[in-house]
Structures are given as C-alpha cells and as structure tokens.
Amino acid sequence: MSEQQKEQIVVIGDSALRTGFSLAGITHLHPAATPAEGEALLDKLMSDANVGIIIVDESMLESIDWRLRRKIESAAKPVVVAVPGRSGPAERSESISKLVKRALGFDLMKRPGAEKKGGNGNGNEKK
After folding, report:
1. Quick count: other Cβ atoms within 10 Å of Cβ 59?
2. pTM score, two decimals?
3. How confident is the model at residue 85 (pLDDT cuts 50, 70, 90)?
4. 34-65 per-position pLDDT tens digit
5. Where are the chain's structural domains?
6. What is the torsion angle, in degrees rounded to the nearest 10, for the CA atoms of residue 37, residue 33, residue 70 and residue 95?
7. Which of 5, 15, 113, 114 lies 20 to 30 Å from 106, alpha-carbon distance?
8. Burial of 112 per CB tally in 10 Å (0-12, 13-18, 19+)
9. Which of the listed CATH numbers 3.30.70.260, 3.40.50.10580, 3.40.1190.20, 3.30.450.40 matches domain 8-117?
10. Is the Cβ–Cβ distance between 68 and 22 less than 8 Å?
C-alpha cells in the first residue's frame, strides 16, 4: 500500500446510519435494505485490502451467517464495529476497546506496569 493510499472506513446500513457518518466525513457509504444485502456486502468488503474499518448496524451483524461471523472474529483486519441502531444498543455488543485489543493483540488502554504496582495504576497505592 502506498503512502498516499489510506485504508478506508466503510459504513454499511440504513439511511440514518449513513447520514450520521457522512456528517462525520466518512465517504464510503453503502446502503443495505435487507440483512441479506448487508451480509453479502460485508462478506465482499472483508476481502478488500483497502478497507481498514467496517461500521455496521449491530442488528444487521446479529443476523449474519455463522461462517461470516467466524471470519469476522478471526480477522485482524478489517475491524468490524457494530453500532447501535434506532432501537438502541443490544446486550451482547462488544466494546471498541475489546475490538481493538482483539485486532492488535494487546490492550491500548492498559498502562504499562499498572498491574505490578498493586495500587490503582497511577503509582499511588491505596492504604
């Protein structure tokens, strides 16, 4: 990948989801009228080397085939991020920090040496 070519952030979903992300500056927006349409598009984008992050409505992600789900869970790239839809968040949603940890193999939020100090991680031990 050349220095000028950046990995894309792609959004798959309904018009409300796409509009929200277009206002945030995302330009790679794909409509998915049905779960099957979204699943086919997601499967195709998982193989695209130019895609770094795929954002989907979590209700669509819940309805995908188990084989595609396994492919998503085992892939380091692209990272698939589920965002709550109009009905609100699902109970099983995975946090962004857990997704990043799974993709990179380590926790970005964990400070080095925090577990060794025995305190609250900032060097000030509780008494």
Report:
1. 17
2. 0.66
3. confident
4. 888 999 999 999 999 999 999 998 888 888 89
5. 8-117
6. 160
7. 5
8. exposed
9. 3.40.50.10580
10. no
Two tokens, residue 5: 């070519």
- Give 127's contacts (C-beta < 8 A, 6+ positions apart): none
DSSP string, 73-122: HH-SSSEEEEE-BTTB--TTPPPHHHHHHHHHSS-TTSPTTHHHHSSSSS
Residue 36 to residue 68: CA distance in whole angstroms: 12
Cα angle 9, 18, 12 (rounded to 5 degrees) comes to 60
Among 45, 52, 66, 55, which residue's Cα sits nearest to residue 14? 55
Backbone angles phi and psi of 103, in degrees to 5: -70, -40
